Amino acid sequence: MIYVLKSEPSPSAFCDILDFGVGKCSGALLIIQPLNRMSPDGVAVLKKLEPYLAEKKVTNKWPGHKMSAGNALVHRYKYEEPFAKAIQDINDHLYGWLQPNFPEDICLLNNTGEPWFVSIVHEKDSYFSLPEEEKNALVQKIPELGRILMKDKGEHVN
């Protein structure tokens, strides 16, 4: 089931989402758009995350996005607690992950490699793809999500 965030989660809720994903997710994606060069700060972010890097791939699509022209560089990271903490320490605002100072479109992949949490940051859009019982556990752990999470059809989850 798809559950859409109707607004940006607070910094603490974003950090809680990242923590909740530890153990449920095995990978994370961050995107570099070639038309938006990285600033020195953005390059420093990539260097800080380098120990967790599993793969770089040039492609025109990733969860939540397909480019109409050109390609982007998709960085795939091992998703584990130190990576989640590094993301939180770098920038705890989900929609603040924008080039040139940060890679974009944080996506967490579940243990089967399917999208679990997807963000399309420049559109201020994000959603979860998870079974209802896992959504219930997520909302119980992070009550703020009960107010801002909606089923894909626009139905409030509470």
Describe the protein in words:
- There is one protein chain.
- The protein is an alpha+beta fold and 158 residues long.
- The chain has one domain (2-151).
- 29% of the residues lie in helices and 32% in strands.
- The chain contains 5 helices and 10 strands; from the N terminus they run E-H-E-H-E-E-E-E-H-E-E-E-H-H-E.
- The protein has helices at residues 11-21, 40-49, 81-90, 132-141, 144-148, and strands at residues 2-5, 25-32, 53-59, 61-62, 65-66, 72-78, 104-110, 115-120, 125-129, 149-151.
- Helix 1 packs antiparallel against helix 3.
- The longest helix has 11 residues, at 11-21.
- The chain is globular and about 40 Å long.
Low-confidence stretches: none
Strand content: 25-35%
Class derived from helix and strand content: alpha+beta
Instruction: Give the biggest beta sheet.
Output: 8 strands, antiparallel
> How many strand elements?
10
- Alpha-carbon distance between the two ends: 15 Å
Overall tally of structural domains = 1
Percent helix:
25-40%
The tally of helices reads: 5
Report the C-alpha radius of gyration, rounded. 15 Å
Sequence of secondary-structure elements: EHEHEEEEHEEEHHE
Strand order of the largest sheet: 3-6-2-7-8-9-1-10
Shape: globular
Would you spell out the secondary-structure blueprint of this structure?
Blueprint: E1 2-5, H1 11-21, E2 25-32, H2 40-49, E3 53-59, E4 61-62, E5 65-66, E6 72-78, H3 81-90, E7 104-110, E8 115-120, E9 125-129, H4 132-141, H5 144-148, E10 149-151
Antiparallel strand pairs: 1-9, 1-10, 2-6, 2-7, 3-6, 4-5, 7-8, 8-9
Helix pairs in contact: 1-3
